[in-house]
Specification:
The chain is of the alpha/beta class and 380 residues long. The protein is built from 13 helices and 17 strands. Strands 5-4-6-7-8-14 form a six-stranded parallel β-sheet, with helices on both faces. Strand 4, helix 5 and strand 5 (117-122) form a beta-alpha-beta unit.
């Protein structure tokens, strides 16, 4: 670091090929960014405002420099000049779920350098609340990124919003025949991968803690069924337990299953929170996870590897999911026409093996005609 004169600091950013000359305590301007790139201020302005005259490559270079220089646009001045809010609404089912916190942070990493701030709402997996939140956000934002709890076919409200000009991108969860950009993983494949892993361990009686009416739940259930069928195992509805997508719901569903006393030796839970809730109930019942019951979740939640018994899960990039969703919304708000391929981004899932799936089939005893655990517990 060197000082040219009082109040003027030349800052060299370590490991980055950028040298910024800025006044100490003063915000970075468009001119500062233009000087670093050797382009005009107009080019920088157009790139940050997603003008169609600027190539994708140039826009990416400008946004990267803006991010590195911590550029913060004057939101009030821009809003007055352009009649836009420069706000993006983000609607997620459960902000307490670190999965969605990671997605939101990734969205912000793209939106902020482009001059947008986020308004984030959590619907608590409540479909009625979701529509209310979205209607409020539409009045205050330029576009929305939504992870919907609605059933995949329940598209009426969103169809009307889009006809009225709303810019919407779906993230994590999909909806059928709603023609807007989508960034998600292949959830049928998620269910198949998790179930096939349990089959590969020698399990034949595999249960499923299923979710709600959303696309992630229905698709992962379909993947579970396909894996059973492809390996010659019969689907048994008695091994299906509805539980929702929250940790508390997984816990309650597993307690009920334990009370009935017919727990399978392996379980695929619709997501990591449901799996973690189920694991808590099993541990309270004195059942050893990974020894007596194998469990696989989905989503690779942030602390899943730090549990007392680390959770085997199916993972995909939450960072890429959020970033891709933000880029698609910026392009849509800029008026770009997106091809069908560009509008639909599918992130590949992969298995993350940890200790929770290391169980062997549990020895059982017949009690009153029903199979029950030999291990005693207050709940069985």
């Amino acid at each position: 670091m060197s000082f040219a004169k009082p109040g003027l600091t030349r800052v060299t950013l370590a490991l980055l090929p950028i040298t910024a000359t800025i006044c100490a305590g003063m915000p970075v301007t468009l001119s500062d960014i233009a000087r670093e790139l050797g382009v005009s201020k107009m080019t920088v302005s157009r790139a940050i405002n997603n003008n169609a005259l600027i190539s994708a490559e140039t826009r990416q270079r400008v946004l990267e420099v803006a991010r590195r220089m911590n550029y913060q646009p004057n939101q009030h001045a821009r809003a007055l000049a352009t009649n836009r809010s420069y706000l993006i609404g983000v609607v997620v089912p459960d902000l307490m779920n670190l999965y969605f916190a990671e997605v939101a942070r990734a969205i912000e990493s793209i939106a902020r350098p482009a001059g947008f701030q986020l308004l984030i709402c959590s619907t608590d997996e409540d479909a009625t609340r979701e529509i209310g939140e979205v209607e409020v956000l539409l009045q205050r934002t330029d576009g929305l990124i939504i992870s919907s709890v609605l059933a995949p076919t329940d598209t009426g409200a969103y169809r009307k919003m889009m006809r009225d000009g709303a810019k919407i991108v779906l993230v994590d969860r999909t909806m059928r025949n709603l023609h807007c950009p989508v960034v998600a993983t292949d959830n049928v494949q998620v269910g198949r991968i998790a179930t096939e892993h349990l089959i590969s361990l020698g399990h034949v009686r595999i249960g499923h803690l299923s979710g709600d009416a959303s696309s992630v739940s229905t698709d992962r259930l379909e993947g579970y069924k396909r894996a059973l069928q492809e390996h010659g195992l019969r689907f048994n509805n008695a091994l299906l337990r509805p539980c929702g997508l929250l940790e508390s719901e997984g816990y309650l569903a597993m307690r009920k299953w334990l009370a009935k006393g017919d727990i399978p030796e392996a379980i695929f839970a619709v997501n990591d929170p449901a799996a973690i809730g189920g694991m808590k109930a099993l541990e309270e019942a004195g059942i050893n996870i990974g020894e007596e019951v194998a469990i696989v979740g989905a989503g690779n939640i942030h602390y899943g590897d730090m549990l007392r018994v680390p959770l085997t899960t199916v993972s995909w990039s939450r960072a890429e999911m959020g970033q891709q969703a933000a880029r698609l919304l910026l392009r849509a708000m800029a008026g770009e026409s997106l091809s069908s391929k560009a509008r639909n981004v599918s992130l590949p899932p992969e298995l993350i093996v940890r200790n929770s799936c290391g169980a062997k089939p549990l020895a059982r005893a017949r009690v009153g005609g029903a199979a029950r655990f030999v291990r005693r517990s207050s709940l069985v």
